[in-house]
Design a protein that fits this description.
The chain contains 13 helices and 15 strands. It is α/β, with parallel strands linked by helices. The chain has 2 domains: 13-42 and 304-400, Aspartate Aminotransferase, domain 1, CATH 3.90.1150; 53-302, 3-Layer(aba) Sandwich (Aspartate Aminotransferase, domain 2). α3 (50-62) crosses α10. The longest helix is centred in the last third of the chain and has 27 residues, at 303-329. The termini are far apart. The protein binds pyridoxal-5'-phosphate. Pyridoxal-5'-phosphate (PLP) binds next to α5.
Protein backbone atom coordinates (compact mmCIF):
# COMPACT_ATOMS: atom_id res chain seq x y z
CA UNK A 1 0.00 0.00 0.00
CA UNK A 2 0.97 3.64 -0.37
CA UNK A 3 2.30 5.55 2.62
CA UNK A 4 0.08 8.45 3.62
CA UNK A 5 1.49 11.93 3.04
CA UNK A 6 2.81 12.90 6.49
CA UNK A 7 1.72 16.48 5.98
CA UNK A 8 -1.88 15.47 5.34
CA UNK A 9 -1.78 13.47 8.55
CA UNK A 10 -0.81 16.62 10.49
CA UNK A 11 -4.04 18.41 9.56
CA UNK A 12 -6.54 18.73 12.35
CA UNK A 13 -9.78 16.81 12.05
CA UNK A 14 -12.93 18.52 10.92
CA UNK A 15 -12.65 21.57 8.77
CA UNK A 16 -14.78 24.21 10.45
CA UNK A 17 -17.77 24.25 8.12
CA UNK A 18 -18.45 20.49 8.04
CA UNK A 19 -18.51 20.58 11.85
CA UNK A 20 -21.02 23.46 11.77
CA UNK A 21 -23.19 21.43 9.37
CA UNK A 22 -22.96 18.41 11.63
CA UNK A 23 -24.23 20.42 14.61
CA UNK A 24 -26.98 22.02 12.51
CA UNK A 25 -28.12 18.57 11.37
CA UNK A 26 -28.05 17.31 14.95
CA UNK A 27 -30.45 20.11 15.93
CA UNK A 28 -32.73 19.30 12.98
CA UNK A 29 -32.78 15.66 14.03
CA UNK A 30 -33.94 16.69 17.50
CA UNK A 31 -36.27 19.39 16.23
CA UNK A 32 -37.25 18.74 12.59
CA UNK A 33 -39.47 21.85 12.46
CA UNK A 34 -36.70 24.26 13.40
CA UNK A 35 -36.35 27.00 10.77
CA UNK A 36 -32.62 27.48 10.94
CA UNK A 37 -31.15 30.66 9.46
CA UNK A 38 -27.49 30.82 8.60
CA UNK A 39 -25.40 33.86 9.37
CA UNK A 40 -22.48 31.47 9.29
CA UNK A 41 -20.79 30.68 6.01
CA UNK A 42 -19.57 33.57 3.87
CA UNK A 43 -21.38 32.36 0.79
CA UNK A 44 -23.09 34.87 -1.50
CA UNK A 45 -26.87 34.65 -1.89
CA UNK A 46 -28.03 37.41 -4.25
CA UNK A 47 -28.54 36.79 -7.98
CA UNK A 48 -26.00 38.01 -10.50
CA UNK A 49 -26.63 41.50 -11.84
CA UNK A 50 -28.15 41.92 -15.35
CA UNK A 51 -24.93 43.23 -16.88
CA UNK A 52 -23.13 40.06 -15.82
CA UNK A 53 -25.83 37.59 -16.83
CA UNK A 54 -26.19 39.25 -20.25
CA UNK A 55 -22.44 39.19 -20.77
CA UNK A 56 -22.18 35.54 -19.68
CA UNK A 57 -25.07 34.56 -21.96
CA UNK A 58 -23.51 36.37 -24.93
CA UNK A 59 -20.16 34.73 -24.26
CA UNK A 60 -21.78 31.28 -24.09
CA UNK A 61 -23.74 31.90 -27.29
CA UNK A 62 -20.56 33.09 -29.00
CA UNK A 63 -19.05 29.67 -28.42
CA UNK A 64 -21.84 28.21 -30.54
CA UNK A 65 -20.60 30.04 -33.62
CA UNK A 66 -17.57 29.41 -35.85
CA UNK A 67 -16.33 32.97 -35.36
CA UNK A 68 -16.91 33.02 -31.63
CA UNK A 69 -15.62 29.58 -30.72
CA UNK A 70 -12.39 29.28 -28.75
CA UNK A 71 -10.65 26.36 -27.10
CA UNK A 72 -7.72 26.58 -24.72
CA UNK A 73 -6.67 30.15 -24.10
CA UNK A 74 -3.59 31.65 -22.50
CA UNK A 75 -3.10 30.15 -19.04
CA UNK A 76 -2.48 33.66 -17.71
CA UNK A 77 -5.95 34.80 -18.84
CA UNK A 78 -7.46 36.78 -21.70
CA UNK A 79 -5.18 39.70 -22.48
CA UNK A 80 -8.14 42.09 -22.58
CA UNK A 81 -9.40 40.95 -19.17
CA UNK A 82 -5.93 41.25 -17.64
CA UNK A 83 -5.87 44.81 -18.90
CA UNK A 84 -9.32 45.57 -17.55
CA UNK A 85 -8.50 44.17 -14.10
CA UNK A 86 -5.31 46.26 -14.05
CA UNK A 87 -7.16 49.42 -15.15
CA UNK A 88 -10.16 48.91 -12.86
CA UNK A 89 -8.49 47.78 -9.64
CA UNK A 90 -4.85 48.88 -10.00
CA UNK A 91 -4.71 52.15 -11.94
CA UNK A 92 -1.02 53.21 -12.02
CA UNK A 93 -0.30 50.43 -9.51
CA UNK A 94 0.07 47.31 -11.68
CA UNK A 95 0.20 46.47 -15.38
CA UNK A 96 -1.82 43.93 -17.38
CA UNK A 97 1.18 41.56 -17.66
CA UNK A 98 1.40 41.42 -13.88
CA UNK A 99 -2.23 40.22 -13.56
CA UNK A 100 -2.83 36.46 -13.79
CA UNK A 101 -6.48 35.45 -14.11
CA UNK A 102 -7.53 32.30 -12.27
CA UNK A 103 -10.40 30.20 -11.02
CA UNK A 104 -10.37 31.91 -7.62
CA UNK A 105 -8.32 33.27 -4.77
CA UNK A 106 -8.33 30.10 -2.70
CA UNK A 107 -6.91 28.06 -5.57
CA UNK A 108 -4.26 30.73 -6.19
CA UNK A 109 -3.23 30.67 -2.53
CA UNK A 110 -2.69 26.90 -2.84
CA UNK A 111 -0.58 27.39 -5.95
CA UNK A 112 1.41 30.17 -4.27
CA UNK A 113 2.22 27.72 -1.47
CA UNK A 114 3.38 25.22 -4.06
CA UNK A 115 5.58 27.86 -5.72
CA UNK A 116 7.40 28.71 -2.49
CA UNK A 117 7.90 25.06 -1.58
CA UNK A 118 8.10 23.17 1.64
CA UNK A 119 11.02 25.02 3.18
CA UNK A 120 9.34 28.44 3.18
CA UNK A 121 8.65 29.82 6.66
CA UNK A 122 5.25 31.33 7.22
CA UNK A 123 3.47 33.93 9.36
CA UNK A 124 -0.31 34.28 9.43
CA UNK A 125 -2.71 36.65 11.08
CA UNK A 126 -4.50 34.91 13.92
CA UNK A 127 -7.45 34.49 13.46
CA UNK A 128 -7.29 33.91 9.70
CA UNK A 129 -9.05 32.43 6.70
CA UNK A 130 -8.16 28.73 7.12
CA UNK A 131 -6.43 28.04 3.78
CA UNK A 132 -3.31 30.01 4.74
CA UNK A 133 -2.54 27.61 7.59
CA UNK A 134 -4.02 24.39 6.25
CA UNK A 135 -2.48 24.85 2.81
CA UNK A 136 0.91 25.52 4.42
CA UNK A 137 0.51 22.34 6.47
CA UNK A 138 -0.27 20.31 3.34
CA UNK A 139 2.79 21.75 1.61
CA UNK A 140 5.01 20.69 4.50
CA UNK A 141 5.80 24.25 5.57
CA UNK A 142 4.99 23.45 9.23
CA UNK A 143 5.89 21.05 12.00
CA UNK A 144 3.36 19.12 14.04
CA UNK A 145 0.21 20.46 15.65
CA UNK A 146 0.68 21.56 19.22
CA UNK A 147 -2.59 20.69 20.98
CA UNK A 148 -1.78 22.76 24.07
CA UNK A 149 -1.27 25.95 22.11
CA UNK A 150 -3.73 24.95 19.40
CA UNK A 151 -1.11 26.00 16.87
CA UNK A 152 1.17 24.35 14.38
CA UNK A 153 4.79 24.51 15.44
CA UNK A 154 6.79 26.22 12.76
CA UNK A 155 4.11 28.80 11.91
CA UNK A 156 4.30 32.31 13.33
CA UNK A 157 0.84 33.34 14.52
CA UNK A 158 0.30 37.10 14.46
CA UNK A 159 -2.41 37.61 17.07
CA UNK A 160 -4.95 40.24 16.03
CA UNK A 161 -7.50 41.34 18.61
CA UNK A 162 -9.39 44.43 19.72
CA UNK A 163 -6.51 45.04 22.16
CA UNK A 164 -4.02 45.66 19.35
CA UNK A 165 -6.54 47.19 16.97
CA UNK A 166 -6.40 43.99 14.91
CA UNK A 167 -2.82 44.70 13.87
CA UNK A 168 0.06 42.51 15.08
CA UNK A 169 2.93 43.83 17.16
CA UNK A 170 5.58 43.59 14.47
CA UNK A 171 8.40 44.86 16.69
CA UNK A 172 8.32 41.54 18.59
CA UNK A 173 7.70 39.36 15.51
CA UNK A 174 10.48 37.21 14.13
CA UNK A 175 11.28 37.02 10.44
CA UNK A 176 9.51 34.59 8.12
CA UNK A 177 9.73 34.15 4.36
CA UNK A 178 6.00 34.68 3.80
CA UNK A 179 3.44 36.79 5.63
CA UNK A 180 -0.24 36.19 4.86
CA UNK A 181 -2.30 39.30 5.42
CA UNK A 182 -5.96 39.87 4.62
CA UNK A 183 -7.74 43.24 4.64
CA UNK A 184 -10.68 43.73 4.97
CA UNK A 185 -10.24 40.72 7.14
CA UNK A 186 -12.10 37.49 7.25
CA UNK A 187 -13.09 36.75 10.02
CA UNK A 188 -12.54 39.88 12.16
CA UNK A 189 -14.01 42.38 9.70
CA UNK A 190 -11.09 44.73 10.42
CA UNK A 191 -9.85 46.85 7.51
CA UNK A 192 -6.27 47.96 8.00
CA UNK A 193 -5.39 51.64 7.92
CA UNK A 194 -2.75 53.06 5.61
CA UNK A 195 -0.22 53.55 8.41
CA UNK A 196 -0.69 49.92 9.51
CA UNK A 197 -0.08 48.59 6.01
CA UNK A 198 2.92 50.91 5.73
CA UNK A 199 4.35 49.29 8.88
CA UNK A 200 3.71 45.88 7.35
CA UNK A 201 5.47 46.76 4.10
CA UNK A 202 8.42 48.29 5.98
CA UNK A 203 8.65 45.16 8.13
CA UNK A 204 8.67 42.93 5.03
CA UNK A 205 11.31 45.13 3.38
CA UNK A 206 13.54 45.08 6.45
CA UNK A 207 13.26 41.29 6.70
CA UNK A 208 13.27 40.55 2.97
CA UNK A 209 9.96 38.74 3.36
CA UNK A 210 7.10 38.50 0.87
CA UNK A 211 3.57 39.53 1.83
CA UNK A 212 0.71 37.50 0.34
CA UNK A 213 -2.03 40.10 0.51
CA UNK A 214 -5.60 38.83 0.21
CA UNK A 215 -7.95 41.56 -0.97
CA UNK A 216 -11.02 39.38 -1.58
CA UNK A 217 -13.28 41.94 0.17
CA UNK A 218 -11.67 45.10 -1.22
CA UNK A 219 -14.85 46.82 -2.42
CA UNK A 220 -16.68 46.34 0.85
CA UNK A 221 -14.54 49.18 2.21
CA UNK A 222 -16.75 52.25 2.74
CA UNK A 223 -14.15 54.52 4.28
CA UNK A 224 -12.46 56.27 1.35
CA UNK A 225 -9.24 56.75 3.33
CA UNK A 226 -8.57 53.01 3.71
CA UNK A 227 -6.38 51.22 1.15
CA UNK A 228 -8.04 48.58 -1.02
CA UNK A 229 -4.82 47.17 -2.34
CA UNK A 230 -1.41 46.63 -0.75
CA UNK A 231 0.04 48.29 -3.84
CA UNK A 232 -1.35 51.63 -2.66
CA UNK A 233 1.46 51.52 -0.11
CA UNK A 234 4.85 52.89 -1.17
CA UNK A 235 7.40 50.13 -1.67
CA UNK A 236 4.82 47.32 -1.68
CA UNK A 237 5.69 46.33 -5.25
CA UNK A 238 9.09 45.17 -3.97
CA UNK A 239 7.64 42.89 -1.29
CA UNK A 240 4.07 41.82 -2.06
CA UNK A 241 1.86 39.58 -4.14
CA UNK A 242 -1.86 40.36 -4.13
CA UNK A 243 -4.65 37.82 -4.51
CA UNK A 244 -8.07 39.06 -5.64
CA UNK A 245 -11.43 37.45 -6.24
CA UNK A 246 -14.71 38.13 -7.99
CA UNK A 247 -16.48 35.76 -5.57
CA UNK A 248 -17.69 38.41 -3.16
CA UNK A 249 -17.52 41.36 -5.55
CA UNK A 250 -19.71 39.90 -8.30
CA UNK A 251 -21.35 36.97 -6.50
CA UNK A 252 -19.01 34.53 -8.29
CA UNK A 253 -18.62 32.02 -5.45
CA UNK A 254 -20.10 29.42 -7.80
CA UNK A 255 -19.17 30.93 -11.17
CA UNK A 256 -15.46 31.17 -10.16
CA UNK A 257 -12.98 33.83 -11.22
CA UNK A 258 -10.10 35.45 -9.42
CA UNK A 259 -6.67 36.86 -10.08
CA UNK A 260 -3.19 37.28 -8.66
CA UNK A 261 -0.91 40.26 -9.19
CA UNK A 262 2.83 39.59 -9.13
CA UNK A 263 4.93 42.73 -9.65
CA UNK A 264 7.73 42.38 -12.17
CA UNK A 265 10.28 43.79 -9.73
CA UNK A 266 9.58 41.23 -6.98
CA UNK A 267 12.65 38.98 -6.74
CA UNK A 268 13.83 35.88 -4.91
CA UNK A 269 17.11 35.95 -2.96
CA UNK A 270 19.07 34.97 -6.05
CA UNK A 271 17.57 37.78 -8.11
CA UNK A 272 15.22 35.53 -10.07
CA UNK A 273 11.88 37.32 -10.72
CA UNK A 274 9.00 35.75 -8.80
CA UNK A 275 6.70 36.48 -11.75
CA UNK A 276 8.67 34.02 -13.90
CA UNK A 277 8.12 31.18 -11.45
CA UNK A 278 4.47 32.15 -11.03
CA UNK A 279 4.08 32.04 -14.80
CA UNK A 280 5.68 28.59 -14.77
CA UNK A 281 3.32 27.38 -12.04
CA UNK A 282 0.27 28.72 -13.86
CA UNK A 283 1.28 27.32 -17.24
CA UNK A 284 2.15 23.93 -15.75
CA UNK A 285 -0.66 23.07 -13.35
CA UNK A 286 -3.41 25.46 -14.43
CA UNK A 287 -5.03 25.55 -17.84
CA UNK A 288 -6.77 28.90 -17.79
CA UNK A 289 -10.08 30.04 -16.31
CA UNK A 290 -13.35 29.40 -18.16
CA UNK A 291 -13.48 31.34 -21.43
CA UNK A 292 -17.21 32.06 -20.98
CA UNK A 293 -16.60 33.59 -17.58
CA UNK A 294 -13.55 35.56 -18.65
CA UNK A 295 -15.25 37.01 -21.73
CA UNK A 296 -18.39 37.72 -19.72
CA UNK A 297 -16.54 39.60 -16.98
CA UNK A 298 -14.43 41.42 -19.52
CA UNK A 299 -17.56 42.75 -21.20
CA UNK A 300 -19.21 43.52 -17.88
CA UNK A 301 -16.36 45.53 -16.32
CA UNK A 302 -18.02 48.70 -17.56
CA UNK A 303 -19.36 51.73 -15.72
CA UNK A 304 -22.80 50.10 -15.60
CA UNK A 305 -21.36 46.73 -14.54
CA UNK A 306 -19.39 48.33 -11.72
CA UNK A 307 -22.47 50.29 -10.61
CA UNK A 308 -24.40 47.02 -10.37
CA UNK A 309 -21.50 45.41 -8.50
CA UNK A 310 -21.55 48.22 -5.94
CA UNK A 311 -25.34 47.99 -5.59
CA UNK A 312 -25.09 44.32 -4.56
CA UNK A 313 -22.23 45.06 -2.18
CA UNK A 314 -24.33 47.91 -0.69
CA UNK A 315 -27.15 45.41 -0.18
CA UNK A 316 -24.87 43.10 1.83
CA UNK A 317 -23.52 46.05 3.77
CA UNK A 318 -27.06 47.01 4.76
CA UNK A 319 -27.42 43.42 6.04
CA UNK A 320 -24.19 43.99 7.98
CA UNK A 321 -25.64 47.13 9.55
CA UNK A 322 -28.80 45.29 10.62
CA UNK A 323 -26.83 42.38 12.08
CA UNK A 324 -24.35 44.63 13.85
CA UNK A 325 -27.23 46.48 15.45
CA UNK A 326 -28.77 43.19 16.67
CA UNK A 327 -25.44 41.88 17.96
CA UNK A 328 -24.93 45.16 19.82
CA UNK A 329 -28.39 44.90 21.34
CA UNK A 330 -27.48 41.41 22.57
CA UNK A 331 -24.87 43.20 24.63
CA UNK A 332 -21.92 41.73 22.71
CA UNK A 333 -18.90 43.95 22.19
CA UNK A 334 -18.40 43.74 18.44
CA UNK A 335 -16.16 44.84 15.61
CA UNK A 336 -16.25 44.93 11.81
CA UNK A 337 -19.41 45.13 9.72
CA UNK A 338 -18.54 48.66 8.61
CA UNK A 339 -15.87 48.08 5.95
CA UNK A 340 -16.48 44.36 5.58
CA UNK A 341 -19.38 41.92 5.52
CA UNK A 342 -18.29 40.24 8.79
CA UNK A 343 -19.18 41.17 12.35
CA UNK A 344 -16.82 39.84 15.00
CA UNK A 345 -18.40 39.59 18.44
CA UNK A 346 -16.77 38.83 21.78
CA UNK A 347 -18.72 36.35 23.87
CA UNK A 348 -17.33 36.92 27.35
CA UNK A 349 -17.16 33.99 29.74
CA UNK A 350 -17.95 31.42 27.04
CA UNK A 351 -16.02 29.44 24.52
CA UNK A 352 -16.79 30.12 20.87
CA UNK A 353 -18.41 26.69 20.42
CA UNK A 354 -20.55 27.11 23.59
CA UNK A 355 -21.79 30.48 22.36
CA UNK A 356 -22.40 28.97 18.90
CA UNK A 357 -24.47 26.14 20.46
CA UNK A 358 -26.42 28.55 22.62
CA UNK A 359 -27.46 30.77 19.71
CA UNK A 360 -28.20 27.72 17.55
CA UNK A 361 -30.33 26.06 20.25
CA UNK A 362 -32.15 29.19 21.43
CA UNK A 363 -32.45 31.30 18.27
CA UNK A 364 -31.98 28.69 15.55
CA UNK A 365 -29.39 30.98 14.02
CA UNK A 366 -26.07 29.62 12.73
CA UNK A 367 -22.95 31.69 13.37
CA UNK A 368 -19.29 30.73 13.00
CA UNK A 369 -17.20 29.99 16.10
CA UNK A 370 -14.16 32.28 16.11
CA UNK A 371 -11.91 29.52 17.43
CA UNK A 372 -12.24 27.78 14.05
CA UNK A 373 -10.09 30.55 12.55
CA UNK A 374 -7.18 30.17 14.96
CA UNK A 375 -6.40 30.27 18.67
CA UNK A 376 -6.84 34.06 18.97
CA UNK A 377 -10.42 33.61 17.69
CA UNK A 378 -11.42 31.77 20.87
CA UNK A 379 -14.11 33.67 22.74
CA UNK A 380 -15.48 35.27 19.55
CA UNK A 381 -18.24 34.55 17.05
CA UNK A 382 -18.36 35.63 13.42
CA UNK A 383 -21.66 36.80 11.92
CA UNK A 384 -21.79 36.93 8.13
CA UNK A 385 -23.83 39.52 6.24
CA UNK A 386 -24.30 37.29 3.20
CA UNK A 387 -27.98 36.33 3.16
CA UNK A 388 -31.41 37.16 1.75
CA UNK A 389 -32.91 40.23 3.41
CA UNK A 390 -35.94 38.38 4.78
CA UNK A 391 -33.67 35.79 6.41
CA UNK A 392 -31.44 38.48 7.87
CA UNK A 393 -34.49 40.38 9.19
CA UNK A 394 -35.87 37.22 10.77
CA UNK A 395 -32.49 36.35 12.32
CA UNK A 396 -32.15 39.89 13.62
CA UNK A 397 -35.63 39.71 15.16
CA UNK A 398 -34.77 36.44 16.89
CA UNK A 399 -31.44 37.77 18.14
CA UNK A 400 -33.16 40.84 19.59
CA UNK A 401 -35.95 38.84 21.29
N1 LIG B 1 -9.93 34.90 0.63
C1 LIG B 1 -10.73 35.16 1.66
C2 LIG B 1 -10.27 36.03 2.76
C3 LIG B 1 -12.00 34.61 1.72
O1 LIG B 1 -12.79 34.86 2.75
C4 LIG B 1 -12.43 33.78 0.66
C5 LIG B 1 -13.75 33.14 0.66
O2 LIG B 1 -14.49 33.14 1.60
C6 LIG B 1 -11.55 33.53 -0.38
C7 LIG B 1 -10.29 34.11 -0.37
C8 LIG B 1 -11.92 32.59 -1.49
O3 LIG B 1 -12.01 33.23 -2.68
P1 LIG B 1 -12.40 32.41 -4.01
O4 LIG B 1 -13.86 32.12 -3.95
O5 LIG B 1 -12.03 33.36 -5.10
O6 LIG B 1 -11.59 31.17 -4.04
Amino acid sequence: MVERNKNMAKLQAGYLFPEISRRKNALLKKNPDAKIISLGIGNTTEPLSPCITNALRDAAEGLGTHEGYSGYGDEQGLAELRGKIADTFYPKLASAEEVFVSDGAKCDIGRIQLMFGSSATVAVQDPAYPVYVDGSVMMGQTDNYNPLQKQFDGITYLACSPENNFFPGLESTSRTDLIYFCSPNNPTGAASARDQLTQLVDFAKKNKSIIIFDSAYRDFIRDKGLPRSIFEIDGAREVAIEVGSFSKLLGFTGVRLGWTVVPKGLKFDDGHPVIKDWNRVMTTIFNGASNIVQTGVCNALTEQGLREMHATIDFYMENARLIKDAVTSLGYENYGGVNSPYIWARVPGKSSWDAFEEILEEKHVVTTPGSGFGPAGEGFLRFSAFGHREDVEEAVKRLKE
